[in-house]
Write a structure and sequence with these properties.
Blueprint (H helix, E strand, L loop, with lengths): L3 E5 L3 H13 L3 E5 L2 H11 L3 E5 L8 H4 L11 E4 L5
Parallel strand pairs: 1-2, 1-3, 3-4
Length: about 80
């Protein structure tokens, strides 16, 4: 069974590009477009890895998003942000 990756990215075009890249590499991919949707997907989908856009314009910092011990434990987290170049 392929590893399941949750991509949390508010830019739908970027989320789609990441999804296609990961699926072409053999992974199962689930997208979420905001932190609330991400938590729903974490609970429902139980991903092996979360790819997170830490610069989402939601006012929620990544540490707040994943810091609540009442929420599911994460196996792996990969945080990304846009390049400043």
């Amino acid at each position: 069974m392929a590893a399941k990756i949750l991509v949390v990215e508010d830019d739908r075009d970027m989320a789609e590009a990441i999804r296609l890249t990961l699926e072409n590499a053999g992974y199962q991919v689930v997208n979420a477009y905001n932190p609330d949707e991400a938590w729903e997907k974490v609970s429902a989908e139980k991903p092996d890895l979360i790819v997170l856009d830490i610069m989402m314009p939601t006012g929620t910092e990544a540490s707040n998003l994943f810091g609540n011990s009442a929420r599911p434990k994460l196996m792996s987290l990969f945080a990304m942000s846009p390049s400043s170049s």
